[in-house]
Automatic annotation (TrEMBL):
It is found in: Cell membrane; Membrane. This is Peptide MFS transporter. The keyword Cell cycle does not apply. It is a multi-pass membrane protein. The chain crosses the membrane at residues 57-74, 86-108, 117-139, 145-168, 180-201, 207-226, 247-269, 275-295, 307-324, 344-372, 384-404, 410-430, 451-472, 478-497. InterPro entries: Dipep/tripep_permease, MFS_dom, MFS_trans_sf, MFS_Transporters, POT_fam, PTR2_symporter_CS.
Length: 510
């Protein structure tokens, strides 16, 4: 239904970047009025900065102890799962988080708008962490992970979309703003594993999960106070669902839930193949999403070309996250056995390793933001950044080779710190840049859903990371790190060799 089909139509306006020519000056002026209130960025960025910071605190705090909780023995307070099953579940769960961005984006674009979905998603996340904290055994694990996955998916795509509404269409500081937003993400990612890891060592796994719930509650309270100041664009419903179709969509949702339950009870979906299922579902969803957007009559020729230009970036992003997200699978196993965590007689808890990368992000995100701002229109194009990011990520995996096949506690902590520094450089070349370019390439009618497509690349890569972990052999690590590192380097090099045709498809977006 179009915007003018009925008197009860939800009022909508153009999404970010979709203002008409006659409105451009008004939009720019509105953005200029709040342009420098938060470290040179729009002051409204502070509200999304902090809710995302607390969400990441809870998310990474929980994820920092999740794998340990699943494969540690019952005597140690864990669930006693086999390592291969546990890593597969972690990968599948991580993939499901990003896969859920589809649901969050669809609800935002068709029913509620990005800002409202962000708010309700934060509530669901908090409930998920409470479930992990208070419900025992596998039931607590299942209920908690499902709620956190669905809520995080809704928050992720929509937080990014709301940030995009803060900037005028031609604002060259957009990448710098997203890098600052990324700093908030990593402040939470830094503190989460440290504090939940400390709680785990001191009081047990469920205390760590409870601390994650408290962190999300803090973010929810803060956002509730500041959300009313966000721009009206953040509440836009770009493509409202007609009232007559809502019953149909509810029926489809119920049928999907019933189908999943039946497949689980029938043994088709089980813990051992969960990563495989998420990979297949995510791949099918990505293909379907691209098909829907590219064949839509609501996008013009330039928009369609830009979506085609996004496909190579999507593929490289999948490859990057397949390696990067192994911080939560292979690197956790590696740290639990092969890493020397003795610091002057104090044994550093394994979850603390997850805070090394955020430290570098906090240090370097400002450097990268300042670099992109200083270079302005002379900065490398997005395809160049993506290609270099994939190559650097491949090099990071090759850096494990000097320590491969080592004895227990044989890898120096400084070695992992150095490797994670390389991880960070690769991440800053792809992740915040990917968030930014997605908002620039997004067709007007698929504003938030295009952001969900970027997160689908993360979902696919994360699920693949969990699936790949089954091939990790602690006694023969050379093939694993070598093959994956070389694949990432080849993938990045292929994109660098394709810069001109990709930029041509992107139609002026760099």
């Amino acid at each position: 239904m179009s915007q003018n089909e009925g008197p009860d139509q939800v009022p909508v306006g153009p999404p970010m970047g979709a203002a008409t020519a006659e409105d451009d000056s008004a939009v720019t002026a509105a953005h200029d009025r709040r342009d420098h209130g938060f470290f040179g960025q729009p002051f409204d960025l502070v509200h999304i900065f902090f809710v995302e910071m607390w969400e990441r605190f809870s998310f990474y705090g929980m994820q920092g102890i999740l794998l340990l909780y699943m494969f540690h023995s019952l005597e140690k307070g864990g669930l006693g799962m086999p390592e291969a099953t546990a890593t597969g579940i972690v990968g599948a769960y991580g993939g499901a988080v990003y896969l859920s961005t589809i649901l969050g984006a669809w609800v935002a674009d068709r029913l509620l708008g990005s800002e409202r979905v962000l708010f309700f998603s934060a509530i669901v996340i908090m409930c998920g962490h409470i479930g992990l904290a208070v419900l025992p055994g596998f039931w607590g694990l299942g209920v908690g992970l499902i709620l956190v996955a669905v809520g995080s998916g809704g928050l992720k795509a929509n937080a990014t979309s709301v940030v995009g509404t803060l900037y005028a269409p031609a604002d060259t500081r957009r990448d710098a703003g997203f890098s600052l937003f990324y700093l908030g993400i990593n402040l939470g990612a830094l503190l989460g594993p440290i504090l939940t890891g400390w709680a785990m060592v001191t009081w047990g796994f469920h205390a760590g999960f409870a601390l994650a719930a408290i962190g999300m509650a803090a973010g929810l309270i803060q956002y509730s106070i500041g959300r009313k100041n966000l721009p009206d664009d953040a509440r836009v419903i770009p493509n409202p669902l007609p009232a007559g179709r809502r019953i149909i969509m509810i029926g489809i949702a119920v049928a999907a839930i019933v189908l999943i339950i039946v497949l689980v009870l029938a043994g088709v979906i089980k813990a051992k193949n969960l990563a495989d299922v998420v990979i297949l579902v995510t791949l099918a969803a990505a293909i379907a999403y691209f098909a829907v957007i590219l064949t839509s009559k609501r996008i013009d020729g330039d928009e369609r070309s830009r979506v085609f230009g996004f496909i190579p970036l999507f593929i490289v992003s999948v490859g990057f996250w397949s390696l990067y997200q192994q911080q939560f699978t292979v690197l956790t196993l590696y740290s639990d056995s092969q890493l020397n965590r003795d610091i002057f007689g104090w044994i550093m808890p394994v979850p603390f390793v997850q805070s090394i990368n955020p430290i570098f992000i906090i240090i370097l995100s400002g450097v990268f933001a300042a670099l992109w701002t200083k270079l302005g229109s002379r900065q490398p194009s997005t395809p160049v950044k993506f290609g270099l990011g994939s190559i650097v990520m491949g090099i990071a995996f090759l850096l494990f080779l000097p320590f491969a096949n080592g004895a227990d506690n044989s890898t120096p902590l400084l070695a992992i710190v150095g490797i994670l520094l390389v991880f960070t450089i690769a991440e800053l070349l792809i992740s915040p840049v990917g968030l930014s370019v997605t908002t620039k390439l997004a067709p007007k009618a698929f504003h938030t859903q295009m952001v969900a497509l970027f997160f689908l690349s993360v979902a696919l890569g994360t699920a693949i990371a969990g699936w790949l972990a089954q091939f990790y052999n602690a006694k023969d690590q050379v093939p694993y790190f070598s093959v994956l590192g070389i694949i990432a380097i080849v993938l990045g090099s292929a994109l660098l060799l394709s810069i001109k045709p990709v930029l041509k498809l992107m139609r002026g977006v760099r």
